[in-house]
Queue: 2 jobs
Job 1
Amino acid sequence: QQPVQSPQAVILREGEDAVINCSSSKALYSVHWYRQKHGEAPVFLMILLKGGEQKGHEKISASFNEKKQQSSLYLTASQLSYSGTYFCGTEMNSGYALNFGKGTSLLVTP
Amino acid sequence: EAGVAQSPRYKIIEKRQSVAFWCNPISGHATLYWYQQILGQGPKLLIQFQNNGVVDDSQLPKDRFSAERLKGVDSTLKIQPAKLEDSAVYLCASSYGEASGTQYFGPGTRLLVL
């Protein structure tokens, strides 16, 4: 079951904040976030396991609301290097492969 | 630590031809995945190996796609015969164990079928 990401695209000025959402209609075991730059492989950002924990990675953090089966990725004080496409990958049970969303394209401008 | 290696990086073939991709995962990683990523979309799992056994190949078009992971290390993905709609990036990823772990992606093979 492919998760739904929103928004599809975001344009920010350097220093602005953004939130990317990932929703599933099925109960999830974990949510994985990746960033992919044009022509490159997806790069791992973080994993969130069920339990509603929040994690951080530099100025990028994420949360997982188990009741809503929704994860949100927070990018604060965005930098030019944050530009790329962000994918969430959802896992139904431990050890299962990921179902990836269609991605959110983020462009940070000077 | 060396990352996931894939070859070739680019391949152009005509429809009905065959093609093979190779992947060498990070050393010690038991789980290996092949994904297909069509332009503008997220990666879609084709097959998942745990050591040299298949865990999930439910989305692999078995009439034309095949994959193997002999000796539980490197893997090959083959398409025979190729169709126009197979044009995509084929990504290989690996993770350490069978539990929810970080998947590390290789650079991918860009396939264009003419």
Job 2
Amino acid sequence: GQQVMQIPQYQHVQEGEDFTTYCNSSTTLSNIQWYKQRPGGHPVFLIQLVKSGEVKKQKRLTFQFGEAKKNSSLHITATQTTDVGTYFCAGPRSNDYKLSFGAGTTVTVRA
Amino acid sequence: NAGVTQTPKFRILKIGQSMTLQCAQDMNHNYMYWYRQDPGMGLKLIYYSVGAGITDKGEVPNGYNVSRSTTEDFPLRLELAAPSQTSVYFCASSYELHRATSTNEKLFFGSGTQLSVL
């Protein structure tokens, strides 16, 4: 069945540096969503990408959907301590439309 | 609006005990979901509901039961707790099911229930 894979599982970043986390699907996705979960908190919706090659920005966060709609990335510039948490991507499975979540990328920041 | 409310926040069960995790939403969403989150494993769908009286299994339904008597409430029942059910449980709701290509299908999560079975 469809799986959504995320890499890396952990990302340790120096404050002020940039980093990217990647999401890959074994099948084509109609859309992809990104969520952020702060330590001890619950996932919160960040954004949804729908179109092939789509790029969306939210302040220092840049989200991209691949041309083949099988991968996505989240790039954070000038990382801050407020970026700490786990970032999940999720895509609807083609057979039943249930969201399949990646395992997440857990981000820690060194001040 | 309170959004999605889950109770309790923490619970410790002994093997074989039963309990119900409560979930309520006040956004008039038709679609509600139960997920479990294990370390490094992401979120796995246990059960979901597309409306009052209608429920269906997700990826990991064994050992759980649900009911949906009203639009607002979607309780999750553990009948015979097992150590493998130690996890963090999240209830979520959405305005639309995940087939659409609009942000109306985004999930709103509750604050979670941390359950330990010893």
